[in-house]
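Saturday, quiet lab. Running sequence design on the structure tokens for the scaffold JK sent over.
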């Protein structure tokens, strides 16, 4: 096993045991993480029962303290529809309900405003914005939608978007000849192979996410590279092929290897076709796009 593979697998096992590790592949917003401080979830009554529901289903922390937890909770409330469009958000009330400072509330609302979820205007206050105003490419919003009532629509839309982005990236990458990035792609395939043999789903997922990020980087298109976060988010919320059955993991591994071989040969068409084959491996994809024809 290469040094890189050993390092990455060790880091993944450390993360799985609760220690800090690179990346956050195993981070899901509704997961309960023992030992992590959370925003208090008081019982809310009266006209604020919709807010109380989200308090009782406290979301997992991203390790950002009260500010991060409040952003997480309010964001999920908005995306799930618990707080509908044009609903007023009173900072003082939020601070009292979650027992956090005015500063925490103010900074949390600024983050949500940057994501397009709320708007703050003089003499109007802070209100929830309609879906048409949301930044639907924001990784947090992608996760909140993917683990809420809109999960089916979000995962279908992500798959359709990947079907557009990644085959193109694979074709462009074949003409760039950046040996160091191509070697890192090959390293990721090696890591995935070892992880599959060990049944290590976390390491497989980390290497898979890194592979796709590197591939888009290798394409040499800055606008595509800007969309790499969408692909990473899609991989996180869809669950990797290894989470289904080993057959899907083995098929995915083979297609990753064929992409690397095509890139090394400078064959853009083969790289594109291999990526299309890869995108059909996951069972969810079969309901969205047809399998590519053999050429």
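Result came back. Writing it out in full:
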């Amino acid at each position: 096993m290469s040094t890189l593979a050993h390092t990455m697998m060790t880091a993944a096992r450390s993360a799985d045991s609760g220690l800090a590790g690179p990346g956050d592949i195993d981070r899901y917003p509704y997961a309960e993480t023992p030992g992590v401080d959370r925003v208090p979830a008081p019982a809310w009554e009266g006209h604020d029962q919709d807010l109380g529901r989200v308090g009782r289903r406290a979301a997992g922390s991203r390790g950002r303290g009260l500010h991060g937890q409040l952003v997480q909770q309010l964001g999920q409330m908005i995306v799930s529809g618990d707080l509908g469009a044009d609903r007023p958000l009173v900072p003082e009330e939020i601070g009292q309900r979650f027992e956090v400072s005015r500063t925490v509330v103010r900074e949390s609302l600024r983050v949500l405003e940057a994501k397009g979820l709320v708007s703050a205007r003089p003499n109007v206050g802070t209100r929830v914005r309609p879906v048409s105003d949301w930044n639907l490419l924001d990784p947090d919003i992608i996760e909140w939608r993917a683990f809420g009532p809109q999960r089916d629509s979000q995962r279908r839309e992500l798959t359709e978007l990947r079907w557009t982005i990644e085959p193109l990236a694979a074709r462009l990458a074949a003409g760039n000849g950046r040996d160091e990035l191509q070697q890192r792609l090959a390293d990721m395939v090696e890591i995935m192979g070892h992880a599959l043999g060990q049944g290590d789903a976390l390491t497989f997922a980390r290497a898979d996410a890194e592979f796709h990020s590197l591939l888009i980087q290798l394409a040499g298109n800055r606008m595509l590279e800007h969309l790499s976060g969408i692909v990473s988010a899609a991989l996180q919320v869809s669950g990797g092929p290894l989470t289904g059955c080993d057959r899907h993991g083995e098929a995915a591994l083979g297609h990753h290897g064929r992409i690397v071989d095509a890139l090394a040969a400078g064959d853009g068409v083969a790289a594109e076709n291999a990526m299309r084959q890869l995108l059909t491996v996951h069972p969810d994809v079969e309901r969205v796009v047809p399998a590519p024809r053999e050429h």
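Notes for JK: Residues 12-63, 240-245, 285-295 have pLDDT under 50 and may be disordered. The two ends are 35 Å apart (CA to CA). Ask whether to fix the surface positions before the next round.
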